[in-house]
Amino acid sequence: MQIYLPIAEMPVNVLVILAMGLAVGFLSGMFGVGGGFLMTPLLIFLGIPPAVAVGTQSTQVVASSVTGALAHWRNMSIDFKMGGVMLVGGVFGSFNGIAIFRLLTKIGQVDLMISIVYVVFLSIIGAMMLTESLRAIMAARRGAPLSGNRGGQHSWIHGLPFKMRFRRSKLYISIIPPVMIGFFVGMLSAIMGVGGGFIMVPAMIYLLRMPTSVVIGTSLFQIVFVSALTGVMHSVENQAVDAMLGLLLVAGGVIGAQYGVRAAAKLQGEQLRAMLAIIVLLMGMRLGWDLVTPPADLYSITDAIPHS
Amino acid sequence: MRTYLAIATAALIALTATPIVAAQLVTDLSEHQVRIRSNFTGTQILLFGAIEVNTANERSLDRDVVVVVTGPSRAVTVRRKDRVAGIWINTESITFPNVPGYYAVASSRPLEVTAEGPVLQREQIGIDNVNFGAPLAQGIDGSRQILSVDDEKSFIKALVRNKRREKLYSSDPGGIIFLGQTLFRATVEIPANVPVGLYTATVYLIADGEVVDAISSPLYIDKSGLERFLYRFAHNDALLYGLIAVFGAALAGWLGSAVLRQR
User: Fold this and answer.
1) Into how many domains does chain B fold?
2) pTM score, two decimals?
């Protein structure tokens, strides 16, 4: 069953898109990840123009992060003050990311940049997830409990100025690191069409030393607003948000997430996490392979003035 | 008064037209409008026509019909990849200002045998004879470059090759099928990724290596229904479109959360 996408200007198979939405939604429900870092490369593999894939994916991120943030809000596991500080950085980062995206589109390097950024991040995340889950599997086999290693209590971060008290996180730290993290993730969000939780969550735990109980809720809270801003800006700057494609992705994602959450309660988490890690690594390799192998045609064509 | 005038004009046209032109084309398209709806996966346009022969036993062997369908022209950038530090990246580029978004040619015999090169070039008949306009070459850093004629040719070839791969450029020697002496027809494939806009279908009658008659019909390809609405909305009112898309997504997320909570 084919449907013509008005902004991407190509027909796609509805069932394929829905299945992708379901699968990525399932994984995101199961592991609590946004899934953007899986969906955007999949859309590009399908032949959707990278700008449209990134722009449209940001609406899907809005939907899944709203679902997640609401659940954490009910559990009171959001540090709104910390989220707000990070959001300030996120807004600037997002503007910056859009500007970079526009510049690179103009000089014809946007596909390359998206590929490189994805190769780098998919490899790092995949490798990290894989080692972590393998270690957990080994530990479970040996029957030894996993020790939460949080290291020393003070680092260079505590020496920075502009300190602020975050009651919910039980922290008194400089606002510079959270703003920087927000900025960096906002930029990635605009360039990659992801929420950025996979960067933000480890950064909040290991750099800011926030309590794990509020980390995911707070990052989701921030992602809602940054991805909403990114989506609007991709619409305004590049006319790259395809409402039809977005609808299909969101529908598949919302349904898939429900089953993912339920499955997570029943299934062996670590093995599945290892599988996800392998999928992520394979996608990174595939994108990397495309960068280093000679392309089928050395020449490519694009409209000199995108649309209008 | 008006009827008299009309009759007089008709008579004048009839008088001037008949004796001068030996053979005349009459053509039409099966559709003058293609609407791209959500189920659009490409279509076919049937072009048909007849050559009106005035003298009863006139029969020219060296007589060909060529159909050219062109889409709206845009500036197109062709980029070449080179290996830099192990990865393939876009380096030189050439922008051609005047590239038809679609170009299909069908003929009753291969183009080479219908007319001499200069004739085809003048009329821009055949993919190799389309004039893409004055090229602007740029290096990877955006600086103006001057490319050799050979380089430029390889960029033009690459442009055509890419367009052919996307099925936007096509040539079909023998695509014009004659039904008897005067009637002919051709089918033109319109792929799903076709750009929207005003198209022109031109039928050329070539006799003894010269274009003796040509007739053009317009063909309008546009998005329709929801597709048109969304496309127009996204381009004319981008901010509102973006806000609605994001708000709709947030709403879907909230719905998802509500469903999740019930279980």
Assistant:
1) 2
2) 0.79
